[in-house]
Amino acid sequence: MKIMKFGGTCLGSEDALQRVAKVVKDETEQKIVVVSASSGVTNSIRDFISKPRQEKEIDDFLLQLKLRHVEMLPKKDGQKRKDALEMIEAKITKLERLLYGITYTEELTPRTNDLILSFGERLSAIVVASRLSHEGMDAVAMETDTLGMITNEQHGNAVAILDKCEKNMGPALTSAVKKGVVPVVTGFFGVTETGHVATVGKSGTDYTAAVVAYSTDSKPVEIWKEVDGFMSADPKLVKDAFILERLSYEEAAELAYFGAQVLHPRAVQPARLKGIEIVIKNLYKPEAPGTVIGKSKQLRKDIIKSVSYLSNVATLKVYDAGAGYKSGFLADITACLHKANINIFSATTSQTCAAVLIDEADIHNAKKAVKAIIGSVGENFEVNPGVALVCTVGEGFGTTKGIAARVFNAVAARNVNVDLISAGASMVAYHFTVERKDLKNTIIAIHDEFWGKTMRENVSDGPVS
Prior knowledge:
Blueprint: E1 2-6, H1 14-26, E2 31-35, H2 41-49, H3 55-72, H4 79-105, H5 110-117, H6 119-134, E3 138-142, H7 144-147, E4 150-151, H8 162-178, E5 181-186, E6 189-192, E7 197-199, H9 205-216, E8 221-225, E9 246-248, H10 249-257, H11 268-273, E10 278-282, E11 291-294, E12 306-319, H12 329-339, E13 346-349, E14 353-359, H13 363-371, E15 380-393, H14 396-399, H15 403-412, E16 421-422, E17 429-435, H16 439-451, H17 453-459
Parallel strand pairs: 1-2, 1-8, 2-5, 3-5, 4-6, 8-10, 9-11
Antiparallel strand pairs: 6-7, 10-11, 12-14, 12-15, 13-14, 15-17, 16-17
């Protein structure tokens, strides 16, 4: 039994939906399908509830949302289309009540926010199940809150409680598959132990798919996208970038977290616990092997696998002459940022300064949060925007001498200055910052150093893994 996950761009057009139906129908193994919301739907819902609305605006928004999903259904009339239409209508009616509720109360709690955002997946599961049924499969839309994908209470970024997911979801889904049903499962959200919907974070359907695989002992997890897989670098910056045939769990997690938008970084954890491979597949080239993510099978120790980046980063530095001797100095800084819901990408410290990397979009809130503790924690602070965080990944970092030196020498040869460096925390990655204007030069320099023409020819006969 395998898991087949389809992202929003795979559900965003008539052509894409037809391709999804064909891929699932052509798969002869028993399977469970996991789906995201259709492209742009969750963002449109999020934008809509971000500001007060009039009743007329709610009606117009819901009508457009309903029509979009109705138009995605198979055109052939019949009982199955009628059933799908009724299910869509029921979801829109429930969403209408929620939107009117937050309009009248002028209050949107994290709990209600997550419930509202879950409707994109609920609607797309109905559409995909209808499409598969139209192709002769016994497909049924199933929702993860009903199935019992139990999470913690961290609304907006919930974490699955895997043993409880396995106890609840495993038997239900396995039983359905044994009866010949193709479950079409909603991604992106689960349910807390107190019975409230909790979303698992942006692009979290990859994570849901891995949790479903863990719960049902299915393998592999296929992540269907519009790209071939992980690449050696961003092809928008490096014209010679190439597909990586294999990555270890650790390598994939580092690349995913630091900018390679191919896989949700947390999808790795449930898969790794049971040795389940994840395969990135291209919906438009289903015959391509894609990138396989699994246990380490390193063959070469003198090269790295890939270089990724985050381009919209700022450096926040808090200064204190006695920082190195103050217990909890860094903890106090990170705590105040956490309270302001600001994510920290990386942190480094010295005797007089603690430096953290944050998203540029969080600068205003970060300044406000840190300003409130200056005096009791730190003497002063500064924020420097226009920074890029570069991540070089490969298991060679933990086993081979001289790789880091090659990275930094290659960058220095391009007259690029490296600022903050994070090394040692991961055995498979080095992170460092450069000015954003130097990002392209930096990525090209590293790629040329490790994957120049000669090197590519040397490894062309087999995977570098």
